[in-house]
Amino acid sequence: MLEKVKIGVFVMGGIAAYKVPELVRQLIKKGAQVQVAMTQSAQEFVTPLTLQVLTKRPVLTHTFDEREPSQVQHVAMADWCDLALVVPATANGLAKMAHGLADDVVTTTLLAVTAPILVVPAMNVHMYENPATQRNLAQLRADGLTIMEPDTGFLAEGYEGKGRLPELHRIVAQVERLYARTHLPQSLAGKQVIVSAGGTRERIDPVRYISNDSSGKMGYAMAQAADWLGATVTLVSTTHSLLPPEGVQVQEVASAQELAQAMTSHYDQMDYVVMAAAVSDYRVKYPHDQKIKKVAGQTDWQLDLVANPDILAQLGQTKRQQVLIGFAAETQNLLEHARAKLSKKGADWLIANDVSNPAIGFNSDKNQVYVLGAQGQEVLLPQQSKTSLALAAWQVILAEGEETL
Ligand code: C5P
């Protein structure tokens, strides 16, 4: 999402500034171009040279340090930005921004920025909770800036409180989200989307379960892409090992029955329903309350299973306004099996992938899929990251929807 995106990073003088070089590296690794401006106080914590070396660009440190006669540097930087990131935003810096003051190179440049601005405050808890700071944040929100909530945790002062800089990967994810939401067509704006993801876990006893190889990555990518396209998204997830997409409401479940309950309870309000979860076809008939003990000498052991509800098929039967999207993971005769599943389950769309190829599918970060529509549509989306594949799948689904309106 950030490939070739021009990001202006505005650093203010808080202790969290020591994390900015690493943040800048993470943005650059995502393909972004970064230009930094720093206040005098920020330079007490991290040197402009560090950031110049990382970004391969001169760092703006003084408003009147004009080295290029053909331009005014702060206006040139403001115009260059596709997105501006203020990190860390100090109480003093927020106050200046809220009042439109421009008395250093950071606030002066920010005043000239017309691109979307993400503000990441980090400061002492009492400074953060001070009514003046809260008033300034409310003003900036009202002015259309996006503010990230600080984390609660161990502060530089040696005690716990709200004011920590959020984890860097979360800041990067917020940058991606803001860029997506301001640059992609918001074709899912105002829509409610629910996505299920991951392999269900069917309990045998308190320490054992039956599950499958689904990583949940494709479902997470579908949820994130829907959010990027403007939807309000609920993600019903069985996995703890993936980072929840920023802005998406996550509901944790384990078994197929819990998943069915979650999906049906939200179903009426939904516009799009994506069943990307790998649901166990069977569950244990008599799960044990206590850990099952090994019996000496016993070589065989039977486990009774009973069929789970087919959630997608049930949703298909009660479908009204919802567009229903299923997934099919197949190891042979992909298209034939997928098309049969599409009609059997009463889905509108089926996203089919061949899991016999280890380069794509389960656990891989890449995938290649067919998007099949109930009206006979068949689109091959070639191998690419699950993130871009999810966006492409939504585009196929939404474009077809427009044509049939
Ligand atoms: O039948 P199969 O499991 O291959 O179908 C895959 C699709 O059906 C997926 O969208 C999956 O989430 C859904 N499914 C379901 N309930 C089941 C089994 C699969 O909703 N019991």
TrEMBL record:
Spans annotated as Phosphopantothenate--cysteine ligase: 193-405
Obligatory cofactor(s): Mg(2+); FMN
Region (Phosphopantothenoylcysteine decarboxylase): 1-192
Taxonomic source organism: Abiotrophia defectiva ATCC 49176
Classification via SUPFAM superfamilies: CoaB-like, Homo-oligomeric flavin-containing Cys decarboxylases, HFCD
The protein's name in its UniProt record: Coenzyme A biosynthesis bifunctional protein CoaBC
Domain of life where this protein originates: Bacteria
Cofactor note: Binds 1 FMN per subunit.
Binding locations of CTP: D281, K291, P309, D310, I311, L312, F327, K341, K345
General function of this protein: Catalyzes two sequential steps in the biosynthesis of coenzyme A. In the first step cysteine is conjugated to 4'-phosphopantothenate to form 4-phosphopantothenoylcysteine. In the second step the latter compound is decarboxylated to form 4'-phosphopantotheine. Catalyzes two steps in the biosynthesis of coenzyme A. In the first step cysteine is conjugated to 4'-phosphopantothenate to form 4-phosphopantothenoylcysteine, in the latter compound is decarboxylated to form 4'-phosphopantotheine.
Domain Flavoprotein positions: 6-176
Gene3D superfamilies: CoaB-like, Flavin prenyltransferase-like
Pathway linked to the protein: Cofactor biosynthesis; coenzyme A biosynthesis; CoA from (R)-pantothenate: step 3/5; Cofactor biosynthesis; coenzyme A biosynthesis; CoA from (R)-pantothenate: step 2/5
